[in-house]
Every structure is written in C-alpha cells, then in structure tokens.
Amino acid sequence: MCMALFLAGWNDGSTGPLLPRIQSVYHVGFAVVSLIFVSNCIGFVTAAAANVHLTDRLGLGKVMVLGSVAQCIAYALEAPAPPFPVFVVAYAINGFGIALQDAGANGYVASLADNAETKMGILHAVYGLGALSSPLVATQFSQLHHWSFHYLTSLGVAILDTIAQVVVFRFRDQDECLAEIGQPPSEKAASTNEDNKYKQIFRMRAVHYLAFFILIYVGVEVTIGGWIVTFVIDVRHGGPSSGYISAGFFGGLTLGRVALLWLNKKIGERRVIFLYAFLAIGLELIVWLVPSLIGGAVAVSFVGMLLGPIYPIAMNHSGRILPPWLLTGAIGWIAGFGQAGSAFLPFLTGLLASKEGIKSLQPLLVSMMGLMAFLWALVPNTPRRPD
C-alpha cells in the first residue's frame, strides 16, 4: 500500500516543475494547459463511482493491480510527448488508476485493528516521500531537450508498483488479506448487496462532508505543489531551479505526517486540524504579502508541514464514525471524490491566472484554506452507532 501511495505522490509532485515546459512545448496558455487537471478529475471521479462495484466484483487485490496497470499505460502514452489531446487523455487514465489505488490503500489501512492511526500516518508520509522525490527529478528533465522522458522514470516506478501489488496481494480480496494477519473479516450488515451499499453510503451526511473536505484539502495541496513554481518564476523572478521549492513543500508534508503525530494525540485529532489550518493561512499570507524569494520558500515548506497530518487524520476519523461494513466503500468514495480536488482547484487556478495573472494564486489558497476549516467544523464528531 505504501508503494501505491509513493506512486501517487510521485505523480502529484511531477506536474509543478514540468508545467512551464509543457506550456512552452505545446504553445498553450494557463487555461488550456489546465485541461490536464480537468482530464485528471474525470479519471478520479469515474474511479470513485466505480470503486464499490469493482471491489465487490473483483476484490481488493485485483483492483489494486488494475489501478497500477492504468498508470503504466498513462505514462507510456506521455513519455514520447504525444500531441496535446493524447497527453490530456493520458491524464484521465492516470487519474483513474491513482483513485482506485488511493481508495484501496486508505480503506485497507483504516480497517486494520492494530495501530491504524500510526500506520495511516506512515502510509501518507510515504506519499509525501514520493512527492518530495519527483520534483528533484522532474526539475532536471524540464531543462532537457527530451523533457517528456521524465515519464519513463514514472513508468519505471509504476511497473515496480504493479509487481508489488501482484506479489504481495496475489489478487486476493480484503477479507482474505486480513485473515492472513490474524484479523477477522469486517462486520457485515444484514443486507450488503452492491446496490444497498451505494444507497447506504450516499445517505450518510458524514460521507459527503468528509468528501468535500478532502476535495478542498487535496486541491490546496496539489495546487501549491503544482503552481508554486510558476508563481515563484513569474512573480518572485526565481530562476530555473525554482522547481526545488515544490520539493521543499512536499518535504515539509512528509515530515509533518510523522513528526507531528505526538501533537495530534496531545491536542486531539479533531481540534488540531483547526490549529493547522489557521497557522497555514498565516504562513500563506506571508508568501502572498512579503516579497522575499527565500522567505516565501521557507514559508511554503512550513505550510507543507502543517498540511501534512490533515489527510491521515481525516481518514482515521472516517474509521471512527462510519459503519465498519461500509468503511472500505465509503472511504473509496471519499478518497476518490476528494482526489478530484487535485484537478478542480489547479484548473480553477489556471483559469484565474489566464485572466488575472498567477499572482491570484495566493488569495485563492487563503480562501480555500478557510473553506477547509469550515467544512471540518461540519463533520460529525460522534462515534458510529452500533446499527
């Protein structure tokens, strides 16, 4: 599961450093290049909607391999720098694969009986590790003639992921995997056919609040990672090494998911998210209002550190308030729908930048972080009922 999340992080961290090069190669502006995010969004939402059906029909192990193979196909299409429409379609295939694996990984780890909170933190720290590593590679490729060969490195990581999913899970379903580690299968509702699962999941308000909260969170995270390089180059006049600022953000994200575990427990996971959100808003205001390249880079790294723990906390909270027999399907929807935020907000950023310039990035991020805190206040705090 960590391998799947590493690949997701690798993918999300690659886009920012390559974005200016993609624009110059295909001769497209902010709005048109943002179509890659729209295409990604279509893939994410399609996978989120299909996840319960696919998991019930095929089982967790096969769905994880399906998602990984979809990413291999996408990277193989992107590596030769195809015509822009093909490049855009590849992002939809990639989004479909990421969302299936993200849903499976989060649902599986949330179902673990022992130390699920710590393991969820580790899982998402590995996501951050992937997102930290890829800008270091993508920044180098962005300055080469064969810039798109970066996607060959991504293809290599995706092939390793596919091998890991096949070898470890051996195409088995979740209950078989849990039984192997001595954990009994999850509780079953009286009627858990596929249609009934969909109805039960979509009738729960908590699922929708969590889904929209994750959508805004992931959107903020990927927007910073994806557009901060363009902001630094255009507004703060950074040089070709500006891509490393994206690595600094994801480095902070990785560190926060491990180093702040103690603070989450001390303050309480529900309250600490408000603290992280308001501190991140303050730091984002520094990036916006203080015209310092170095100061902005440091602030962006600390924003990453504060945002880091939020996603695993939300997934752990889902495990506490949602019925166990619906947990994997519900988290699949929350994670898949939430991943659409990694397409929606970056696309919105591109539209605003085409009209107002990339300087509009910071006010958008500040407002979205405020909305994120508001949505978290709506998420119920009560444990799930026995029925």
UniProtKB/TrEMBL annotation:
Provide the protein's localization: Endomembrane system
Is Magnesium tagged as a keyword? no
Q: Which GO terms describe its molecular function?
A: transmembrane transporter activity
**Matching InterPro entries:** MFS, MFS_dom, MFS_trans_sf, MFS_Transporter
GO CC annotations, alphabetized? endomembrane system; membrane
Under the heading SUPFAM superfamilies, the entry gives: MFS general substrate transporter
Keywords per UniProt:
Membrane, Transmembrane, Transmembrane helix, Transport
Q: In what way does this protein cross or attach to the membrane?
A: Multi-pass membrane protein
Name all Major facilitator superfamily (MFS) profile domain ranges.
Answer: 1-385
Give the principal location in a single coarse category.
Answer: membrane
- Membrane spanning stretches: 25-47, 59-77, 83-100, 121-141, 147-169, 206-229, 241-260, 272-290, 296-314, 326-348, 360-379
Which family is it part of?
Belongs to the major facilitator superfamily.
Instruction: Name it.
Output: MFS general substrate transporter
